[in-house]
Recover the amino acids of this structure.
């Protein structure tokens, strides 16, 4: 396919007008003047081509829990509303929930996702079918101080999944997940870190989401959740710390010196009343800040543009400085940095040689037309719904239609 005379978000997350972008064999093969030999031609007039979004933190199967526990704080929301509902899940629910999230992500131009949940077999089926790029991480919980991770069923599940995924370098990959410090012991965290080093994977973990969780860890262990993760060796691999709302300067320094990623989920933090992350401090400390949606149950959408817009507005408002968190900072957090957090160097930029993971947005509708600056329009004026979404050069969503997901079947919850 060749996108003809289209405006693009370039490598610096600014706009570049009226260029032609050719896609061949799943890669971006050409950017510049019109050339022949690319097959299908897409008239780019009125459209904006952007690198596909990547949600650096999500729980996709939670799309079946939209609205559950609304208006509750995190501890009550989890223990009294979410955990009892999750306990009723069957394999088909994990599959349906994950596939439903895939459909929603494609609608919002999201092709990459760091998913943390359970029942890897059902999740794998959904992601394999949907055609998106996912780093799955299966949640490890351990409350017994002497408990051995290797004797848990999830240890076996990981080993089976590694066997299925081969070199673990494809469209669907596996990372380890420590659910959080407050749902694990120092021993189980150490064991998971050892396994991640052995398998060469990343570690995905909830970090300092609420003030009470952050303080309770200091009381229990004498260090912050980030300090404990450093102690158990979790920063020796690619680490994705979800939330990091209450991280200290010292915590951010630990992230920065280890090249670790913060996966911030502003809507979820606001809805659950967890707080507002200090993005400016994290960025100026050198932390790689990516964005995620978190699960639908605490968001209630998987709209990455909404997260990027919130990051920019919260940073400007919190610091009373409109010069902070520029359009390019927010857009790169929602795209390139998220892809890097999944160890996927070939995604998240419109550049020759990169994977053709792309989304097209309409910038000629009533709320976006006459845009003076396409990047600003994308961030602040678009409602988040993409016109077209592609992964590895394959169109997965276009003008409300899906090419890999049977949306009617999904609406009726027929999974198994
Ligand atoms: Zn989460």
């Amino acid at each position: 396919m060749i996108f003809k005379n289209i405006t693009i978000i370039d490598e610096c997350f600014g706009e570049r007008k009226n260029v032609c972008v050719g896609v061949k064999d799943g890669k971006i093969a050409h950017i510049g003047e019109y050339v022949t030999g690319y097959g299908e031609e897409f008239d780019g007039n009125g459209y904006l081509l952007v690198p596909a979004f990547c949600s650096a933190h999500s729980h996709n199967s939670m799309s079946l829990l939209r609205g559950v526990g609304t208006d509750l704080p995190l501890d009550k929301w989890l223990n009294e509303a979410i955990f009892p509902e999750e306990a009723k899940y069957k394999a088909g629910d994990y599959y349906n929930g994950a596939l439903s999230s895939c459909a929603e992500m494609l609608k919002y131009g999201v092709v990459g996702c760091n998913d943390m949940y359970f029942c890897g077999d059902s999740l794998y089926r959904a992601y394999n079918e949907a055609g998106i790029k996912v780093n799955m991480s299966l949640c490890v919980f351990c409350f017994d101080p002497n408990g051995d991770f290797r004797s848990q069923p999830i240890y076996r599940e990981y080993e089976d999944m590694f066997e299925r995924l081969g070199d673990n370098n494809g469209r669907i990959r596996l990372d380890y997940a420590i659910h959080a410090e407050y749902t694990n012991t120092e021993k189980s965290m150490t064991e998971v870190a050892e396994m991640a080093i052995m398998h060469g994977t990343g570690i995905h973990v909830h970090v300092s989401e609420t003030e009470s969780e952050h303080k309770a860890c200091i009381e229990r262990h004498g260090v912050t959740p980030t300090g404990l993760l450093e102690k158990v060796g979790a920063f020796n691999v690619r680490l994705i710390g979800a939330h990091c709302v209450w991280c200290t300067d010292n915590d951010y320094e630990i992230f920065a010196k280890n090249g670790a990623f913060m996966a911030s989920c502003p809507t979820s933090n606001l809805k659950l009343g967890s707080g507002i992350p200090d993005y400016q401090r994290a960025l100026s400390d050198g932390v790689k800040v990516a964005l995620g949606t978190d699960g639908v149950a605490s968001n209630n959408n998987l709209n990455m543009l909404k997260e990027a817009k919130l990051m920019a507005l919260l940073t400007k408002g919190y610091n009373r400085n409109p010069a902070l968190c520029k359009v390019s900072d927010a857009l790169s957090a929602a795209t390139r940095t998220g892809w890097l957090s999944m160890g996927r160097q070939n995604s998240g930029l419109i550049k020759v040689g990169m994977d053709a993971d792309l989304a097209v947005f309409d910038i000629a509708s009533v709320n976006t037309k006459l845009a003076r600056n396409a990047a600003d329009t994308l961030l602040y004026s678009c409602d988040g719904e993409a016109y077209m979404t592609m992964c590895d050069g394959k169109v997965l969503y276009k003008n409300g239609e899906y090419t890999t997901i049977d949306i009617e079947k999904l609406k009726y919850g027929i999974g198994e």
Remarks:
- The chain has two domains: 2-51+348-400, 53-341.
- The radius of gyration is 21 Å.
